[in-house]
Amino acid sequence: MYNIGMEKLHTPVLLSEVLASLSPKLKESYLDLTAGYGGHAEAILGVTLNYKDSVLVDRDEFAASFLKQKFPQNISIINENFYSVVLQLIECGKTFDIILADFGVSSPQLDMEDRGFSYKNDGPLDMRMDRRKSFTASDIVNKWSERDLADIFVKYGEEKPGRAKMLAREIVTNRPIANTKALADIIVSKSRFSHVHPATRIFQAIRIVVNDELTEIEKTLPLIPKLLNRNGRAGFITFHSLEDRLVKDYFKEATSHGEESELTVLNKKPIVADQHELVINPRARSAKLRVVVRN
User: Fold this and answer.
1) What is the DSSP letter of 212?
2) Class of 4-108+215-294 per CATH?
3) CATH topology (fold) of 131-212
4) pTM of the model
5) What's the burial of 170, exposed, middle or buried (CB within 10 Å: 0-12/13-18/19+)?
6) Where are the alpha helices (DSSP H) in the chain?
7) For the chain, which terminal residue's Cβ has fewer other Cβ atoms within 10 angstroms, N or C?
């Protein structure tokens, strides 16, 4: 059901920067690979007014349902992971003037306790963006070996190896772990005070694995030129160094062929939130926007 309160809870990050960088124009087509609750899409489509040639994608069924009620116009809304949709669109020969992907977890996902994304709320160990999938955070926390847990804490949580091993051992020792609060409490009990919550990296690592996030980004990026019209723009918003490195490295490779390069980078340094936005939306503090244009 369309929930106005939900809309207010989710503030799109870097909105003015996205509009300035992607520079939407009347009648241009738009592909949003992670449309979420439609904040960026509403602003861009408000300029282009081209609903019939635009596509909004989100694998979260709550977001997709919300979008269908938020945008009653003749627009395509697809409830699937964006890599699958990109393959389908390429096969159909679709191209766009503007492409946007915001790789962050949405505020409603974090704030809904039963989704299990947040260490601040007491919810089930779930963390699925697509709840049609059976694999959950509980499978990782309660079934994976100590070594495998330590490996993902280092690889996807960027924890130091010694701390990763220690936390993995504590998790295995305290099984079964029933919910997010119990997991967070175990991590906090073995942590020193920090301005960043000690469970942040562990929850990030588990979430990335549950949703296969980095693999999806890595497979999708090389396909972007196939979806862009000439002079089309593509923007990518990342929230941690693992995502940003994938985008940055792809941009470097895709623009390394001189005049034969398919893309040109519009901003050599990532665009970040200004102080005004950080006051309004603290979750924007780690957001980085990188933009390319199709030659």
Assistant:
1) T
2) alpha beta
3) DNA polymerase; domain 1 (1.10.150)
4) 0.93
5) middle
6) 4-9, 15-22, 39-48, 61-70, 82-91, 107-111, 137-143, 146-155, 161-173, 180-189, 200-211, 213-220, 224-227, 241-254, 275-280
7) N
Which amino acid, one-letter code, is at 155? K
254-267: pLDDT as tens digits: 999 888 899 999 98
Residue 7 has pLDDT above 50, yes or no: no
List, in sequence order, every residue forming a beta bridge with 264; answer none if it has no partner. 293
For residue 5, is pLDDT > 60? no
* HSE (side-chain half, CA atoms, 13 Å) at 160: 5
Q: Could you give phi then psi for residue 223, rounded to 5 degrees? A: -90, -10
Q: What is the DSSP letter of 179?
A: B
Are the C-beta atoms of 146 and 168 separated by less than 8 Å? yes
Report the distance separating Cα 13 and Cα 288, nearest Å: 9
